Amino acid sequence: MSGVTIRTVNALIDKQSLPLRGKKINFNIVEIENWIKDTEKYLDKKDKFSYRKDEIKKLWTRIKNYKQI
Fold first, then answer.
1. Residue 55 and residue 6 in contact, taking contact as beta carbons nearer than 8 Å
2. Alpha helix (H) residue ranges in 1-69
3. Could you tell me which of 54, 62, 53, 69 has the C-alpha nearest to residue 32?
4. What's the pLDDT band for 59 if we cut at 50, 70, 90?
5. For residue 6, how many other CB atoms are within 10 A of its CB?
6. pLDDT tens digits, residue range 11-26?
7. pLDDT, mean of residues 53-62
8. What is the DSSP letter of 18?
9. What is the DSSP string of 39-51?
10. What is the pLDDT of residue 21?
11. What rounded mean pLDDT belongs to the chain?
12. From CA 17, how far away is CA 69, in angstroms rounded?
């Protein structure tokens, strides 16, 4: 379940960076941040899902960089 959110958000950010036929995709960054926060709830178990936790950290960095654009 956590992988779906991570891949979806990464795809949205990628599509925003590379406009399709000159059009950018508009999305609500606050809603996306809420998706990630919900996903983090599933990853709270200690010593489990370390790969997904690393992906989430990278995703937060991408969102922070996206906001600065």
1. yes
2. 2-17, 29-42, 50-68
3. 62
4. very high
5. 17
6. 888 877 666 666 666 6
7. 91
8. S
9. HHHHT-STTS-HH
10. 62
11. 81
12. 10
Q: Which residue has the tokens 């959110």?
A: 5
Q: For residue 20, what are the β-bridge partners?
A: 23
Instruction: Give domain limits for the chain.
Output: 2-68
Residue whose structure tokens are 């599509």: 15
- With beta carbons less than 8 A apart as the criterion, state whether 38 and 18 touch: no
Q: How far apart are CA 37 and CA 15, in angstroms?
A: 22
- In the block, residue with structure tokens 């809603």: 31
**Which token pair is 59?**
């995703």
Of residues 29 and 1, the one with the higher pLDDT is 29
Could you tell me the two tokens for 1?
């379940």
